[in-house]
Design goal:
Layout lengths: L2 E9 L6 E5 L7 E7 L2 E9 L7 H15 L4 E3 L5 E2 L2 H10 L1 H11 L2 E10 L2 H15 L8 H24 L8 E4 L7 E10 L3 H14 L4 E9 L24
Antiparallel strand pairs: 1-4, 1-5, 1-6, 2-3, 3-4, 7-9, 7-10, 8-9
Helix pairs in contact: 4-5
């Protein structure tokens, strides 16, 4: 049976820690630290022969990082990063020491807040978009459905951009950084992540609440956080740590 060390995140401490929860793989293997100077990688043993990629491992990965975030600033490592042994982990920390130190300082005391906004009544939104296209071209050629559909999509995109600006405008000044993620479906207006200083977290919450109240009749808000800064840093380890096993294999 092949074993390795699953790497969750990087933190700024030399302290030996056991975080008191089981790691990925469902075997209750302890989550601990491996240190180099004042940096540590948070790891747990994993059997690469049995491990498979799926929803449960992903949830375990996130659960561990969120637990560590309660005590430290974290640099999340990309899902399914496995080192063959502790020495390879220390080698990673040694070779990228300056980079990790800079990122930890940059993200100190900051959290990610996520916001998705979706139209409640898509039929009404499409009707308004159709009215907009009719106003632009009141006498379309008969049978030119393709062109009419294109105009409707353009009107819908314009309406989404306009509403997105109205929602994001009050929030951006409170965030250190903003990431606009891909939207899914015609009804999603905004899918954004905000990097927020913990000192402004309540103020940010209150502003989201005000937006939700102002647009309660037309928009559904899905607001999550505080979370690790997944959208703003994800440590990718390729040649630094040799993979123990192809994550697509497992039983």
């Amino acid at each position: 049976m092949s074993h390795g060390l699953y790497v969750y995140c990087i933190i700024g401490t030399s302290e030996a820690r056991n975080f008191g929860l089981g790691g990925i793989g469902g075997q209750r293997d302890p989550v601990t630290t491996i240190a180099y100077r004042d940096l540590s990688a948070v790891v747990s043993p994993v059997s690469t022969d049995r491990y498979t990629v799926g929803r449960e491992p992903m949830l375990a990965h996130e659960r561990v990082i969120e637990r560590v975030m309660a005590d430290y600033t974290v640099l999340p490592v990309r899902f399914y990063t496995v080192a063959p042994n502790a020495e390879e982990v220390r080698s990673l920390l040694r070779s990228r020491y300056a980079e990790f130190q800079f990122l930890l300082r940059d993200l100190d005391n900051k959290v990610e807040m996520g916001l998705k906004a979706l139209w409640k009544n898509m039929e009404q939104v499409l009707r308004e978009a159709l009215e907009m296209t009719s106003a632009l071209s009141p006498h379309p050629e008969t049978g030119d459905r393709r062109e009419a559909a294109a105009r409707t999509r353009l009107a819908l995109a314009s309406k989404r951009a306009e509403m997105g600006d109205l929602l994001l405008g009050p929030l951006r000044p409170l965030a250190m950084d903003t990431r606009l993620n891909k939207t899914y479906g015609d009804d999603m207006i905004v899918n954004a992540a905000f990097l927020v200083d913990r000192g402004r977290e309540r103020e940010f919450d209150a502003r989201v609440d005000r937006l939700a109240t102002a647009y309660a009749e037309s928009i559904v808000f899905k607001y999550v956080g505080p979370a690790p800064p997944y959208s703003f840093v994800s440590i990718v380890i390729k040649d630094d740590v040799p993979a123990s096993q192809d994550p697509g294999k497992g039983g």
